[in-house]
Amino acid sequence: MRQALTRAALVAWLTLLACSQQADEKLPPVSKQGGPLSVYVVNYPLQYFAERIGGEHVEVVLPAPVDIDPAYWSPGPETVAIYQDADLILLNGAGYAGWTQRASLPRAKLVDTSASFSDRSIALQDAVTHGHGPQGDHSHQGTAFTTWLDPTLASEQAQAIAGAFAGARPQHAAVFRAGLAALETDLRVLDARLAKFARSLGDAPILFSHPVYQYLERRYGLNGRSLNWEPDELPDEAMWWELRKLLPTHPARFMLWEAEPLAATRPRLRVLGVRSVVYAPCGNTPAEGDWLEVMLQNASRLESILKATERKSRS
Prior knowledge:
The chain has 315 residues and is an alpha/beta fold. The chain folds into two domains: 33-182, Rossmann fold (3-Layer(aba) Sandwich); 199-314, Rossmann fold, CATH 3.40.50. Helices cover 46% and strands 13% of the residues. The chain has ten helices and ten strands. It has helices at residues 2-26, 44-54, 77-85, 99-102, 151-168, 173-201, 214-220, 237-246, 265-271, 291-314, and strands at 37-41, 58-61, 88-91, 110-112, 128-131, 137-140, 205-208, 223-226, 254-257, 275-278. It has a four-stranded parallel beta sheet, with helices on one face. A four-stranded parallel beta sheet has the order 8-7-9-10, sandwiched between helices. It has a two-stranded antiparallel ribbon with strand order 5-6. β3, α4 (99-102) and β4 (110-112) form a beta-alpha-beta unit. The protein starts with a helix and ends with a helix. Mean pLDDT is 88; it is low at 1-31, 129-133 and 135-140.
């Protein structure tokens, strides 16, 4: 009798399990529509814009190592596969992150954030190949891509991001609009500060240590000339000779650097009457602060260096 009951209990349990499995099979698959958007980006400015706009409704990832310029980084196959699985992939456009042109990425997930101003992109006339840290040699050719250094273009990129988010999660469209509005307010403040600096500078010549400031130069009508100097490398004598040859026709009082130049570089520039000022493009995650804080610090340094050079010229 006990054995019969045991067999009956086993049959009943198996029957219940089978019914449970059948019921599960009839349930729809778990949808990601209720969860945060998985967003992968190619640089830090896009990550910052996306997080400001999307808030808790997005999970934004920049896989590039922090010590590498994402513009010249190429991910491995496993990382490319992760990009492919994301809900959205935010591209900077303007030729940025060339690996995205070679990788097989789902077109429906791609968002070219600079598409709205592709007709205003800046073509590079002279290609120069040189070394650049752990990425090795690279060439500045094709199209200038540091679009976000013009706050008005950064605003258009942010608008593209907000539109893509609203299309993917229409139930949160109001949140995305509010995030975009707050970001655009900050961008207008930044733009106003830089415009004021440019008006004070007038047509005075300046130098750019590297050809990455084209959109900043165009937006504010700066009278700049670009060199190919790296902040972590000491310029060779040929570079110093080129600079001395340039200064009589372009008597710049200061040079913009992507990062702090070597201590040995600064005094040699000062002898030539050129001061150094860091204007970080912030293409990758900064060691401190966020993208907006870095841009405002850039503006503050420009304002300070202009006041210093004006005091020197009056003395």
